[in-house]
Design brief:
Number of helices: 2
Distance between the termini: 58 Å
Mean pLDDT: 88
Largest sheet: 2 strands, antiparallel
Low-confidence stretches: none
Number of domains: 1
Radius of gyration: 20 Å
Helix content: 10-25%
Structural class: alpha+beta
Shape: elongated
């Protein structure tokens, strides 16, 4: 039986990984599946998926002002 460490880490049994074809170093997505369960699946996210992830994080025009400051240097 696996345990959650104080660093919120879990060691997944090798047999379970082998059964679904996951290997060390692969990226996975973990999401709640209801009733106290988690779903772990191979991540299909790509670099392009990250674009727009921070939209709305900075005030309008802020990044343009930073670019302008860089141009002055």
């Amino acid at each position: 039986m696996a345990r959650i460490s104080t660093k919120n880490q879990i060691t997944i049994p090798v047999a379970a990984l082998a059964e679904v074809g996951l290997h060390a170093g692969e990226r996975v997505t973990i999401e709640p599946a209801g009733d106290g369960e988690l779903r772990i699946r191979r991540s299909t996210a790509t670099f392009q998926d990250a674009f727009g992830a921070l939209t709305g994080t900075y005030p309008v025009g802020y990044l343009d002002r930073l670019d302008a400051e860089d141009d002055l240097r």
